[in-house]
Amino acid sequence: MNNNELHKVAERLGVSRRTFMKFCTGVAATLGLTGGAGVQMAYAIASPRRPAVIWLSAQECTGCTESLLRSTHPTLENLILDLISLDYHETLSVPAGHAAEEAKLHSMKENWGKYVLVVDGSIPMKDGGIYCKVAGKPIVEHVREAAEGAAAIISIGSCASWGGIPAAGPNPTEATPVDKVLTDKAVVNIPGCPPNPYNFLSTVLHLVTFGTVPELDHLNRPRFAYGRLIHENCERRPHFDAGRFALEFGDAGHKKGFCLYKLGCKGPETYANCPAIEFGDVGGGAWPVGVGHPCFGCTEEGVGFNKPIHALSDVKTVTPPTTFPGIAEPVGTGVTPGAAALLGAVGGAVLGATAMAVKQLGKLEKDRVSDHDSQDNP
Amino acid sequence: MNRRDFLKVAGSGALIATASSTVEARGNKEPLPNAVGMLYDSTLCIGCRACVYKCKEVNDMPSVVRDNEVQWDQAEELSGDTLNIIKAYKHGTGETKNSATDGFAFIKRNCMHCVDAGCVSVCPVSAMIKDPETGIVSHNPDACIGCRYCVAACPYNVPKYEYDEAFGQIQKCQLCNQKGVERISKGQNPGCVEVCPTGANIFGTREELLAEAKRRLAMTPGEEYSFPLERVGSTYTHRAKAAAYHPHIFGESEGGGTQVMVIAGMEHTKLGLPDLPERSYASMSETVQHSIYGGMLAPAGLLAGLLYFARRNTKHDDEGEGEA
Amino acid sequence: MSHHQPIGGRLFTAPFLFLGILAVIALVLLVDRFANGLAAVTNLNDGYPWGIWVVYDIVVGTGFACGGYVLALTVYIANKGKYHPLVRPALLASLFGYSLGGLGAVIDMGRYWNFYQMFNPAQMNLNSVMLEVGLCVSAYSLVLFIEFLPVILEKFRADVWRARLEKVLFIFIAIGVLLPTMHQSSLGSLLIAMGHKVDPLWQAQQLMPLLAIMTAMLMGFCIVIFEGSMAAVGLRQPSETHLHRGLIKVIVGLVAAYLVIRFGDLIRRGALGGAFEGDLQGNMFLLETALFVVPLLILGSSRFNRQGRFLLIAAVSLLLAGATYRFNAFLVGFDPGAGYVYFPSAAELMVSIGIVAIEIMGYLFFVKLFPVMPKHQQAHA
Fold first, then answer.
1. Would you say residue A324 has pLDDT above 90?
2. Which residue, A87, A113, A266, A317, has fewest beta-carbon neighbours within 10 Å?
3. Which of residues 285-314 of B touch C (CB under 8 A)?
């Protein structure tokens, strides 16, 4: 592939070549990769062999899809549709009914072992999974079938990752996250309600470019996106450190943009890059905390949909508290050479003077040894 | 004067001293009925240091300058510029909160407002004052001579002198009730309590705080509890699971008790709080002092004897030698 | 008429000028201290509020200045008239020791301009050991001056005033014995309130005042021997060894009693083990004990205790013992908690050295120009 072809791809996408390269480099940066990776990515995207994607929707609200469609940076929906071959998606597929089902089976057969499976929504397991059926079959069976031939499996959204709203108590359908259903498969979790589309896109691009998933954390979330607490990068953090908290929505502190911790912000226990890349591509601090609502912890298992929205969060300080003073911080100055020398000189002077006096006294006494006794009792 | 006379003089003083000692010996002071204080629950503390900052703001304390940079919440120790500080205990990997091994815990250090305060007992000019109503230990710089005996005699190293100033003064936490601040008198809470987001540090009377501390220690770990914020009994609460407490309330009896008390998930010594006997140092010191000087009887008796002998023996000198 | 006379001689000798330089250095450093605060000169910190200015200038320095006290006790109360010739030089040394100790207190005082509050009955805290020490030391410095006043009056031949003063002098002598008994014991009591911050090897609680007064008396007797010996050597004064020997019995008795009480207390409290831990505190305790015990052996031996030089060695050893005990109790054994360290800065040491220099200069000034030293007798000459 040469420059000319890259140019063609850019044209096809309706963007300039420059914008296209910028996009690829930007995605590479989000992933924490070097600029060279951006070029590599551009070539990968321009490749005519686009990976097939099967997108299954279980118990979900289509929010994940909606947010994905609304990324406009540049016309991202074009990019996604051109970058991958989205062969099955209940919302976006052109065919419907049996035709759609057939397209899916066809693509799976054609790309067996190579396609990417994306699941949004949680899987109901109660009563044989009858609470969510597609094409007359419980969704759990669809997922298991598709997972068999998938090169990679991505759980998008909090429902697919942790169970989300359907799994919140009392969880009538026994809604289960994907990785708990496909226990024998590696699943990448992109949690969020909805997840940031760039985190999804970057993961897919990584997959396409390098053939592997990016580095994951212990909950199988890509580290580039979920490696740090929201609290650590939060623009309101200085207020937290200064003890300036909003106590009620609309109070003076809230209006001044104080820390939302006391309103239940889950930033201190939630790992996500929201404060860094924000949300919705409009800029200007448009993300939940930025617009004045406490983070509710959607990307964190056991926080979003589990803890009351306005309950205080537990501040995680998993990095050892090195920035705090220890119990016994050193204070004061120890021995300096000058002081020690001075003290030694004083000691020497005292002992020397004494020694001299002792010697002299001995001499004096020798001289007067004769009249010594007479002086004893004057 | 012969040996017997001499021993008589020495003995008279000693006798009076012994006789008066039984009268003047004193035990620990009792907590005042309306004594106020704070309860710091290390297990709830998230180390946000909002209290450190607020303390500086309320008390108009300068920022700490370290490496030529102003670092307002980065003080490493209590000092003439920092009356309240959050320190961290850390062990091993430092991953688990409240765990003594491979864990970490926070500790807030400030004046403990002792029931029987050493600084108040030792100050020669009554510049350390224990409020007769609230029991708050405050400082009067206009009387202070700067001898720093209070610094030496505080078991917690709390009072600090400003060594870097030509006209330095002693600084210590006065529970935000010193002249010009008077938050307690106005019915407000101390600054550090007001900003604490988790209720790790709450204000109340010593009695209420003790009861609250005992309630917490009685809980089984993991039990849900509505931890009050700011004040004992507040309806403004933080619902959380109780941690595994170390079953000891620091300050209930240490050194005669304190009005600022600490509960934590580990032994207090790990958090830098000293092991203290139940009897206050102040009571020991005062007992010795008053045994010797009670009513100035012993010195007066001794002086009478000394006068007698000095007169007798110098008279002899005067007559014999005309010289002193 | 008088039994005393100035020893005369040139005042501005080379050693005197050297001492003068040391004094000037100290004064310059003090300007810095008053202009820029204590931290400008000292290594004092939030854990160690008391450094050598308190511990040397006041606690140890006034111990060294107890010569006047013990001689007043011996001569005027116990009526041992033969020691009379030793009184004036001892008084002079005490006067300087105390007034410069007082000066040390003022320069160390963080808010010296409020010092008058100590004499303000409305502010006095009668529970405070420090109040007792402060008032007593101030009063005693004044008493020492009055006790020494006859020397000055004699010099200026104000015989009428001198006669008047001597009629009431016994009152000041009595007070001059009472006050050091009080504040020297209280110097020990200062440590009681510090509780666990003082190492168990030195925290004797209610025994602190007793140990302090005993070391004060010991240091008092020994400084008399030391000064006498130094005067004999340095100022070519007649040897007073014959008088000093009479003090041996008292000194030996005091040391023995002190050691019995000290070790009895350590054993009772089970704190003796700390001496053998090999740490700084333990080693300093062993040094301190050795300095107490060695003189006991010297003075107990009839072969050694007849010779002035061994007396001097014993006296110096005991002076160092008393000083080490006080240094140990106040500084070496004082541990405010992990993290805090203190060692005097060079500037801080220079100030204390300068104060000692002033003390010696003042002493030389008075013995050379005022009738302080006993008159030479033919037998000695």
1. no
2. A113
3. 285-293, 299, 302-303, 306-307, 309-314
CA pair distance C71, A174, nearest whole angstrom: 98
Chain B interface, mutation test: which of C32, C91, C151, C170, most B Cβ atoms within 10 Å?
Answer: C170
Whether chain B has a CB inside 8 Å of the CB on A328: the answer is: yes
User: What ipTM does the predicted assembly reach?
Assistant: 0.92
Among the ranges given (A58-72, C82-96, C188-202), the one the predictor scored with the smallest mean pLDDT: A58-72
- Beta strand B128-130 pairing with B260-263: unpaired
Q: Which two tokens stand for residue B62?
A: 């300068």
Per-residue pLDDT, averaged over B38-63, amounts to: 90
Note whether B198 contacts A312, CB cutoff 8 Å: yes
B129 touches chain C (CB under 8 A): no
Residues of chain C in contact with residue B145, where contact means CB-CB under 8 angstroms, are: 109-112, 114-115, 117-118
Alpha helices (runs of H) in A111-236, residue ranges in sequence order: 139-148, 157-162, 164-167, 178-181, 197-210, 223-226, 230-233
Mean pLDDT (whole number) for C151-172: 89
**Is the predicted pLDDT of residue B316 greater than 90, yes or no?**
no
* pTM for the structure as a whole: 0.83
- Chain B CA closest to residue A308: B239
Q: Which fold has domain C44-342?
A: Formate dehydrogenase/DMSO reductase fold (1.20.1630)
A324 with B198: Cβ contact below 8 A:
no
Name every chain B residue with its beta carbon within 8 A of the beta carbon of A325.
75-77, 85, 87-88
Domain spans, chain C:
1-43+344-368, 44-342
Whether residue C146 contacts residue C162, with contact meaning beta carbons closer than 8 Å, is answered with no
Q: What is the DSSP letter of A169?
A: T
B315 contacts in chain C (CB < 8 Å): 170
- A324/B contact by beta carbon, under 8 A: yes
Q: Mean pLDDT, chain A, as a whole number?
A: 83
pLDDT digits (tens, 9 = 90+) for A349-375: 889 988 988 888 888 777 765 454 444
Report CB contact under 8 Å: A320, B106: no
For chain B, what is the mean pLDDT?
87
Residue B283 near residue B137, CB atoms below 8 Å: no
Q: Which two tokens stand for residue A104?
A: 């899916």
Q: Mind listing the pLDDT tens digit for each residue in B214-231?
A: 999 999 999 999 999 999
CATH of B36-279, one of 3.30.70.20, 3.30.390.50, 1.10.1370.30, 3.40.30.10: 3.30.70.20
Mean pLDDT computed over C217-237: 88
A partners (3+ CB pairs within 8 A) are B, C
Query: Taking residues A39-49, what's their average pLDDT?
Result: 68
In sign, the C-alpha dihedral spanning C11, C12, C13, C18 is: positive
Interatomic CA distance for residues B317 and C57, integer angstroms: 35
